Amino acid sequence: MKKWAIALVSGVALLGATNMSYAEENVVRLYTWTEYVPDGLLDDFTKETGIRVERSSLESNETMYAKVKLQLQGGDGGYDVIAPSNYFVSKMAKEGMLQELDHSKLPVIQDLNPDWLDKPYDKGNKYSLPQLLGAPGIAFNTDVYKGSQFKSWADLWQPEFTNIQLLDDVREVFNIALLKIGADPNTKDPAVIKQAYEELLKIRPHLVFNSDNPASSFISGEFDLGQLWNGSVRIAKKEQAPIDMVFPKEGPVLWVDTLAIPKNAKNADAAHKLINYLLSAEVAKKLTLAIGYPTSNIKALEMLPKEITEDPAIYPTAEVLQKSHWQDDVGDAIEIYEKYFQELKAAQ
């Protein structure tokens, strides 16, 4: 997930607290996005297994990667379960930062959507299992605009749109411009990345960046147009905001938040139990009801209300998924993206 960067919640175990009770069999350390653990979600796990969960709030994939890397270099045990987005699974697996999963301890796999499994970022789901699907699109105030006005990402460049919110996320922003110019959103070509940057500069005066609860500005009426994730649209709709979202003809660039086990996890057995629990139908249903993102569990899908599962702004249709792209690791080229993104935000 690339959503809200929220501070650590109360009761969360800090990174520096190593060599503690988490190495014991009855404690497992979970490092995930704050909103992925709504109140009470873990209670039944502890009741059923006797395993206590110490959870930490994941601020970003980049921060998660750096913390796990540091723990590996220090030789200390760290987190037992982490929640990297798919493109970081690929990166971390290549660098030997993840344990191989024992599928025999994960019977929940049989309930997961096969269309979400065995993807290029982790063939055979050797290191991760998918949890929730993110899809960015063009969100709009239904009192002001019609969905038919937005057929392409290029429509955001129309001169009449002068107050546009984009996600404060380097890849999400550049994905729009890359798709607009017909380029691969996972390109590593510096010249193409620069071309996308130059496209974004053309509308820089009209842009505001926000990834800290981006739905809130649509709920408050501060913005009528912009880029949102599908889960954010669900949040805004729950607040009765006049909002909808369309996926342009070029398709969205999808990401999946996964569950994985770091190489140096001290309680791998408990980690497998926790992953199995978090992906189970009842828990997956509760999580999607709370935050709106599509779940990988097919049985949970059958239990969810149609206002979620039949809303194409939240659950992309088969047609949209077919033309979608998957966000992937771009290696060292991320430094080029970051350089231009900082220049873009600094521009007037």
From TrEMBL:
Keywords for the protein's UniProt record, in alphabetical order: Periplasm, Signal, Transport
InterPro entries: SBP, Sperm_putr-bd
Signal peptide start-end: 1-23
GO cellular component annotations of the record: periplasmic space
Compartments where found: Periplasm
Keyword Glycosyltransferase in annotation: no
GO molecular function: polyamine binding
Annotated positions binding spermidine: E35, Y87, D169, V170, R171, E172, Q327
GO biological process: polyamine transport
Family of the protein in this entry: Belongs to the bacterial solute-binding protein PotD/PotF family.
Protein name: Putrescine-binding periplasmic protein
Lineage: Bacteria, Pseudomonadati, Pseudomonadota, Gammaproteobacteria, Pasteurellales
